[in-house]
From TrEMBL:
Gene Ontology MF: a single term: extracellular ligand-gated monoatomic ion channel activity
A Gene Ontology term for the protein's cellular component: membrane
CDD domains, per the entry: LGIC_ECD_nAChR
Protein name as it appears in the record: Acetylcholine receptor subunit alpha-L1
Key words of the record: Receptor, Signal
Record-annotated Neurotransmitter-gated ion-channel ligand-binding domain positions: 61-262
Signal peptide range in chain numbering: 1-17
Family annotation (SUPFAM superfamilies): Nicotinic receptor ligand binding domain-like
Pfam family, one: Neur_chan_LBD
Xref: InterPro entries: Neur_chan_lig-bd, Neur_chan_lig-bd_sf, Neur_channel
Amino acid sequence: MKAFITAFALCFVAVLGAPDLKNLPDLNVDNTLTDAAAAEAEDLTETLKASLSQGNVDDRTRLVADLMSGYNKGVNPDDVAVQFGINLLDFTVRENSNALDSYVWLKIVWQDDRLKWNGDEYGGVQVLRVDSTTLWKPDVTLYNSADPVNMVNCWDSNMLVWSSGKVMFVPPCKMTSRCKFDLKRNPYGEQKCSLKFGSWTFDGNAMDLQFYNKTQSIDLTELNDSTGFEVLSTVAERNVRTYSCCPDPYIDLTFNMTIRRLPGDELFNKF
């Protein structure tokens, strides 16, 4: 729904022209909004404003050249805080191998002060779409992967970079997680699966991992309803752990999902 609203708003801007930014509705001043809803409204407002401030190709070319001069994608930002969330699109239960295939959009946001700029010096440019292979990005991966070689397979989509240094990366991904099912003895019973994410190399002192928009659940707004299973609930927790390998704490975000087979689904699978 949010994607539809954003697309509609951007089309509206393209057709009717750029309105005065001062007259944009203030989406943030509503005390009845939850923190998550307010944060989403802020993101939408930022996207709308940025869509009106693209500059031209010469401005963007000069800006990218200046930003990349001396930039090293192999070096992480200082004390970086990363917001992380999941939008579930579809999933497949692999009963015989106790695994769950998930198709998702990951939502990853962080601050990189090396990417700040003054829009007035670049024709008013406020946002860039940048090849994700050219910038540093968090090495967040799936800890409980059933495929330890290809833990998360993602398309390297562009990143959005704002003049404030804020970076947003929303790649579409496929992943396979371990999940123990009990469908033979309890075909219509509740099944519980989890997706456990964390940085592979950065401890909690170097990279603080938090929930995207403070939302401790999986976003199901784009979920396909033809999976043969229904999602009863999702809840997520943030854990800080110390492992035997290393003295520093590591953070994981674990998304727990309760699913149940729809009546009759197992009959269709036999034919």
